[in-house]
Write a structure and sequence with these properties.
heterodimer; A: about 220 residues; 6-stranded mixed beta sheet; 6 helices; about 30% strand; B: about 350 residues; alpha/beta; 5-stranded mixed beta sheet; 11 helices; 10 strands; about 15% strand; binds zinc ion
Amino acid sequence: MKQLMIDTATTRLSVALSEHGQIQAEATVMVSKNHAVTLMPMIEQLMSAVKWTPPELERIVVTTGPGSYTGIRIGVTTAKTLAYTLQIPLVGVSALRLMAAAPNTELPVVSLIDARRGNAYIGHYQQNEAVTPDRHASVTAWLEANITGPFVVVGDVEPFRDVLAAYEYTEAPAAHSYGRASDLVALGEVTNDVHAFEPEYLRLAEAEAKWLEGQNNG
Amino acid sequence: MDTSLILAIESSCDETSVALVRDGKTLLSNVVSSQIESHKRFGGVVPEVASRHHVERITYVIDDALSEAGVTMQDVDAVAVTQGPGLVGALLVGISAAKALAFAHSKPLIGVHHIAGHIYANELVEKMEFPLVCLVVSGGHTELVYMPEHGVFEVIGETRDDAAGEAYDKVARTLNLPYPGGPAIDRLAADGEDTYKFPRVRLEAGSFDFSFSGLKSSVINAVHNAEQRGETVIPENLAASFQASVVEVLVEKAIRAVKEKGAKQLLVAGGVAANRGLRAALQEATDREGIRLVIPPLDLCGDNAGMIGVAAHHAYVRGKRDTLAMNAVPGLSLEESMTV
Ligand SMILES: [Zn+2]
């Protein structure tokens, strides 16, 4: 089965192709300046390198977020439009799950995407299974509520080093800290409805949150 | 090669729209999914909310447009999409979808300027005859555009501050009218009279530029002064007076541009082209002056992909092609947009 995998959730842009579970091609830009400009040419280049044509694709896997709102919209819109028009299955995977899949460990893995002001998008996985659901939360509060033993941390570690100091954690090596599109090869489940497939922002748009607050107070 | 079947996508603001256009003349379909109900609660378009809605709706709208037209992607010659101007996050959803369609079916990709689309909506009413002048009036734009031929745009006048549509929205807010403000003022004005005699801002002699911020302030001051004196304003008269000032300046400059440029047609484009007061005044003035006036029907004045498909047809026959590296350009220039 010829599969295209896309990750645009963070500042990394990663695309991979697999056939029968074997990676055929992969490209990752570690610090992508503009996913919108780079994504489609990158897909085109990898496909032509392995001599696949678009109608040969049989499945698409994409990270649905959380992460950069614009980034995940580019990835999800590209993936769902391809799956729709080629009439092939579409698989969504949490960006935090992808990150947590990278280190080879039996310990729980905490994946972090910085959301500023002490907050992060936080994933909590063990051997690819979610221990607790993905959250947007204060890292301090989340760690207090959810962590008791040793764990591995991946992703945006730097902004939270002070908070993490109180815990028994190890860091995945930099190369394994965000995962790559090729790690998506065995993750996720096929969605039933490509049209209704949406990003997983984990947060309301700011205006929407304020509006709801107003509704509840008024 | 002047035949084409183009699938066009428009997502620059708060409408998700996809159309199939034959030969730049016939709309086989023109599906518009409006978000206006969602944005009403915020009193205006919220960019992040608009972008989210576009992702939710995009493939539904593509699918509806194809099935309504009774064609498949195999039949399509090119995929066109609004490249700018507009909200960057919103534009990127349409562009990502357009690239995916173009790539999946090995079709050319054509980026289109949003305002070029509005101008080309007129081609669905009457064949464009050059040279022509187009009055562009919308929420973000007030411009007089001179076109010597297809695909060549020369902006001969533009607003120096607020767009006409912006002034409408701000005046509507002052009068506590619901969003969107333009149509609400137009309705009120129909029942009022120009009693306030607000200034007509013509700028220096010979200029085709516009300015509406002074007028907007005059209206707001009139409301505040009345409140301080404990008087109540008659909203109908205030709306009629405001609209009379806007329309008089727009019409006068448009007519003068047509004469000075020897234009064969005066076109009107953009959301404010739906304004009844403006339509009536333009009709009256062009009849009097013997000028050929073309205005799109109401359903083609707002944002829609049909107009993008018509503009794309003329770009397509001229050989314009974009690469899969095309980016959204929120401040895209009209004059450079159709360069092949
Ligand atoms: Zn528009």
